[in-house]
Amino acid sequence: MQESAVPPTPPTPPVSLAALLSREDLALRQLAGPPAAQVTVHWAHTSEMSDPFPYLLGGELLLTAGVHIPEGADSGTYFDDYVSRIVAAGGAALGFGVAPVHDTVPGALVAACEAYGLPLVEVPPRTTFSGVARAVWQLMARARLAELRRVSEAQQGLAAAASRPDPVPSVLRRLATRLDGRAVLYGPEGAEIAAAGREPGGEVGRALAELARYVTGHASSTATDTVAGTRLAVYALGTGQGFVLGVAAPHRESGDHTIASVAAVLLSLLTGEHQSGTGAARSSALVRLLLGARPEEVAPLLGGGGGEGVTQWHVVHARPATGAPDPVSASALGTALGSPLVDTDGDVVRVLVPAIRHAGAEGGSGAGADAGPAPATDPEAGAGGPAAVTGPAAQPGWTLGVSSAVAPAEWPAADAQAARALARAGATRVPLVRHGARPALADLVPDGEAEAHARALLAPVAAVPALTETLRAWLSLHGSWDRTAVALSVHRNTVRQRIARCAALLDADLDDPDVRMELWFALRR
Prior knowledge:
The chain has helices spanning 17-21, 78-88, 107-116, 129-162, 167-179, 202-216, 256-271, 278-290, 295-298, 327-337, 411-428, 447-462, 465-476, 481-488, 492-506, 513-524, and strands at residues 2-3, 15-16, 29-32, 40-41, 43-46, 60-64, 93-97, 120-123, 182-186, 192-197, 222-227, 230-236, 244-249, 313-320, 342-345, 348-354, 356-359, 387-390, 398-402, 432-434.
């Protein structure tokens, strides 16, 4: 059994090597290795390195013209070493270009590929490596388009099923049909409430029920397993009542996880507490905010399921690993985090999550502002305090920035904390960064004086938001050009130009640590 994780390969569907070999315009020919129908390719990569291992990510069709092959290589272990390194790196296949360096594929290379089970493909002289790579991407694009069409049709079908008089059984039937398997809705106690599709064997049914009980007792919202050749997946519905969707299918295709996630979102809405009045309470909260009520006055209406006791909240900023967020994925993220309070703003999803306190837990010192990755459970109460705050956990496929737990009156400040934490998470390439709550020296300076000093110091650059934003990110990342460029989604040369402009306008030496400290203090205010 394994919790779901971000896959090491890109979301673009892989293509079969057989499909590539069937392209008559390429005239490729397989010389060694397992049948092409059993081999999948995730991308094409060209390299003439004698040891390509450090440059491979796995799943590549590695293309080479043999420039790296030394004289007399046939009589030594060169080809065995070369092929074994490709296999160790997870390479999917090797394409060898005939001409201009070699007239034929070396026999020792064919033997080594056969021995190590690496598919070897001969690339004829008239076929360029760029043409092979283009063909791989064309096949991937077609597969991706077919997958998107299939997912879109499934979404429409599931939405139509949810509008029927018997929505829950209808959604389960449609899902089971789409996945050619079994779909089950489990209740809070693990009992099977409704099901559709072919009944699996006793061993598979028991394993699926056990997997459903697993996610109800853990922080993970999804989990997968394979039993007796059947793929199992479960999805906690995030309604706060312990409902779980379980799916068992004989095979797993691209897009199945997305389809099941859509069904989980719909079932979350159908089984959620909004039907008992929580939705009306949230609408009331929105109206009161629009009419001028203070956040702390309307916050009790937002919690749902015991929201009256929620006194602190986290603001979460999240960015998907690929593409821009859509309403379905944003809603699914909110469900996973246990909150329906979701807002999509450009390429970032913002979620307002109630902070959960556990009585009797020992507190610990918080991390510094915009601290690095932390465990899913972060004690933030003072040492010896009566409770600990459990913050939102990392979510597969998302990069998260999480604010400290704050009262409703501090939501705007928490929103800024979450934005900075997300920028740091993107720059450091980690799935989650939390803002800590440790007191700072800046707190010793009266707010009025600190703000006046900050305005005066930053006045030369304040009129250009891009400059202050870049200066803030650059200072927070210790002057790293590359990490700042990643955080701001700009070229590193743009970062250098903006920082040089800041230095000129401020008439300051930004290599001086005292200057950096004073500027950071000002930017924080």
